[in-house]
Amino acid sequence: MKLKALLISAWLLIGGLAHAQSPKVELDLSATEVISQGQTGTCWSFCTTSFLESEALRLTGERHDFSEMAHVRVIYPEKVERYLRYHGHHQFGPGGLSHDVTHAAEVYGMVPQSVYNGREGAGGHNHKVLDRKMKALAKKWAKSGKGSVAGDFDEVDAILDAHLGPLPTSFQYQGTTFTPVSFRDAMGIDPASYVTLSSFAHHPFGAPFILEVPDNHALEAFWNVPLDALEAEVHHALDNGFTVAWDADVSNEGFSFLEGWAIMPETAATKEQWGGLDAMPDEPLVDQNMRQVAFDTQENTDDHLMHIVGRATDAQGRRYFVIKNSWGQDNPYGGQQFVSMSYFRHHTMGVMVHEAGISPTLRQEMGR
C-alpha cells in the first residue's frame, strides 16, 4: 500500500521517548531481520513477505528469505487490467494490501530472494521511474477508450521486466530444482488458509465486508468483528505461535519510527512534552465509536503495513505489540517498534493471520 510520507516532520524531532525505559520483550516470533522497502510504495509486499517467512519457520522449522519483488511483479499487470476494466475510474498505483501477496502466491507461487531480487540497486529499491511509466501507460490506454486489447500487455511486461526482471519459471535452490508453485508448497504455504479481519461499525459484525480504502484495489473482503474481539484475536494468535500482518494509520503524532514507538498520548500532547514525564504518557481508552469516528472523518487512513512479531510489557504493566517495520534498521530497536494497545485499537485498518491462529469460536463463525 502507499504511504502518505515515509517520514513526516514530527518524526525528525529529537528527545521524546529516548529516555523512557524500554518495554521487556516477552514474546518474539520473528523469522528474518528487518529490511528496507527503499523508495517504493510496496510495504504491503515487504510486510506480508516477512509474515510468510515467519509462517514458513512455524510450518517447516526452517528460515528462508523470500522475494518481495516477485509478488510486486505478479500484481502490477493485474492492477493495469483492473484500471482499464473500470475505464480509468479505479485506484492505480504501487500500493496494495496483504491479500495481494497471498493472491500472488496462489496464482504464481513464491521464489527465494536469492533467485529474484527485483533488480535491487546498491542503494536499495527505487521505483520512482517504474511507477511513473506504469501510471502514464495505464492512463493513456484508459483515455484511448480501447480498454484491454490484445497485445497491449506486452508493453506492460516489457516495462516490468526492464525494471524488475522477468519472473523465473524454474530455479535451483539449496540443491533442488523448484518451480514457484513447488517452492511455495515446500515452504508449507497454502494461500487459502489466510484470513483478514477488521472492525468497523458501518458494516454488520460477524460477516465479511469490502474495506473501503483506496489500496484495496482488488476489492477483497475482511471479516468484521467487534473491536475487543479484534485485539483478542491478535493476542490469541501470538500466544499460539502465529504472527500477524498489520495494516494501520501511521500519519499521526503518536507514531515515531525513529524513536521506536507508536502510542496515543493523553497526558502529553506532543513528543516534546513526553520527554518531561517520568513515565510513558497516559493513553485514552479507545472504544468502537471513537475508532469509527476517526475512520469516517478520515483522521485514520490506510497508510502502511507492518508485521506484528511479538509482545512486550513496560514497567507500568502496559502491553505492546512488537512490530517489524520495512523502513530499515535505523532506530533504537533495529527497525522494530513498540505499539501500544490504545494505538492498535484506534489506528488499525485490518490484519491477516493464518486461520489456525484465530480462536475456535471465530473460526467456526467464519466457517473455516
SS-based class: alpha+beta
**What general outline do the C-alpha atoms trace?**
globular
CATH superfamily: Cysteine proteinases
Q: Which CATH-level-2 architecture?
A: Alpha-Beta Complex
Instruction: Note the beta-strand portion.
Output: 15-25%
Sheet having the most strands:
11 strands, mixed
Topology as a string of helices (H) and strands (E): EHHHHHEEHEEEHEEEHHEEEHEH
Write down how many β-strands occur, each being a DSSP E stretch of 2 or more residues: 13
Q: Mean pLDDT, nearest integer?
A: 91
Amino-to-carboxy terminus distance: 27 Å
Report helical residue fraction. 25-40%
Output the number of helix runs.
11
CATH topology: Cathepsin B, Chain A
Multimerization state? single chain
Cα Rg: 20 Å
Number of structural domains: 1
- The CATH class turns out to be Alpha Beta
Poorly predicted runs = 2-19
Description:
The chain has 368 residues and is of the alpha+beta class. The protein has one domain (9-366): Cysteine proteinases (Cathepsin B, Chain A), CATH 3.90.70. It has helices at residues 43-60, 68-85, 98-107, 128-144, 152-163, 180-186, 227-239, 271-274, 288-296, 341-347, 360-366; strands at residues 24-28, 171-173, 176-178, 194-198, 207-210, 221-224, 244-248, 255-256, 261-262, 304-313, 319-324, 336-340, 348-354. The strands form two sheets. Strands 1, 4, 5, 6, 7, 8, 9, 10, 11, 12 and 13 form an eleven-stranded mixed β-sheet that branches. It has a two-stranded antiparallel sheet with strand order 2-3. The chain is globular, with a radius of gyration of 20 Å. The two termini are 27 Å apart.
